[in-house]
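[job 0412] stage=complex_fold ligand=magnesium ion status=START
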Amino acid sequence: MRAQPVWMCADQSCAAAHHDTTTRITSGMARLVLKFGGTSVADLDRIRNVARHVKREVDAGHQVAVVVSAMAGQTNKLVQFCRDASPLHDAREYDAVVASGEQVTSGLLAIVLQDMGVNARSWQGWQVPVKTDENHGAARISEIDGSFLTERLEQGQVAVLAGFQGISPDNRIATLGRGGSDTSAVAIAAAIKADRCDIYTDVDGVYTTDPRIVPKAQRLERVSFEEMLEMSSLGAKVLQVRSVEMAMVHGVRTFVRSSFDDPNAPQVDENGLPIGTLICDEDELVEQQVVTGIAYAKDEAQISIRDVADKPGVAQSVFGPLADAHINVDMIVQNISPDGKTTDITFTVPEGDFERAKKVLEDNREEIGFQNIEGASDVVKVSVIGIGMRSHAGIAAQCFSGLASKGINIRAITTSEIKISVLIDSAYAELAVRTLHSLYGLDG
Ligand code: ADP
Ligand code: ASP
Ligand code: MG
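[job 0412] stage=complex_fold status=DONE, emitting structure tokens
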């Protein structure tokens, strides 16, 4: 029987089917998707190591689809080629260039697997096909027909898929935005109704914060979809945001683990638990912390417009033109006007849109009616995340006093039910993350 396209798999019965398979993490025959990121396939030696992980799962009797990224650094190089060729390049040609990194690694891994006696072949996005929208450079997957893949998996062949890419309605290669191989992997897992999607990376799971900047960060056994969504969108690049959204919607059991472990070592800890982090429903969490993690994002820029006329419609006159220019505005602070006449508005935009946002505002200066614009790109957004915040008061106050005790000034604040974000000078980024990590008892 042919598998349904991915979007037909979103109903509750399908999600439940995925959840019934918890025990298959370590035993029994399963259908698995294994995704390997850039550092995991950085050279031929690493690709051979990846092949050993794949072979271990095949030898255990599982059906295996593999999704690979480009070798570490390759996508950056390809992006730079496009920029150097022309700053205003055609996004469809950009996609033709940057998607090539994954084509190389999918072919190489298939060759290495065949060399080890494993029946394997490579698949490009268009061959599956992974269908996307036409938003080249940051396309969304619209549909995957997993039937051809499923047939091959059932025949015992390993499918090695190029991540990060698909085919758009205009029949051109489309890429999914940086870090998009995670999304490819989860989408493929949903399309072929995999029992689990393993995201192999250069750390052995999701940590309480980026272990590269806080050595005391601890690996989390389980994280809820909702918390992971916040962590990813607030800067924890261990999973692309869209991959978490997709895992949540389609009920894909997603397990983050290390590709750097010895493939032949037991893949469980001393308690028999698999080593990694399971992203799962909230009701599957074993113990609940008030604060689960701290994230930071350096790619924000702050804009303040001074002495804006304080009248109804002013926010629309500022944010309307920015929305028309497809610029996402994140944190917003508007002061109460002291004299009833003018006020200041501060907000953040992605750093890449900083210059464009200032120009849009200058172009609309008369309509908005303001004195001057100030901006800063040396800012960082630090966020405290945890579903336990819903039922605990005082978490924000603790955050503010912790930062104040280190002399860190807060430029803007946003909160939701399960997160608090503060905008601070980037010079204090690491100090702030470390301070909050200790403050909420997350240090190992
Ligand atoms: P890959 O190339 O495998 O896709 P990425 O570099 O995209 O890997 O993501 C893994 C990196 O994410 C880690 O090396 C780590 O520095 C970073 N990271 C940021 N926040 C976290 C976190 N909370 N837990 C684990 N890793 C994190
Ligand atoms: N190679 C792409 C990137 O570097 C996609 C990925 O690695 O997930 O963004
Ligand atoms: Mg990544």
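The chain is about 35% helix and 25% strand.
[job 0412] exit 0
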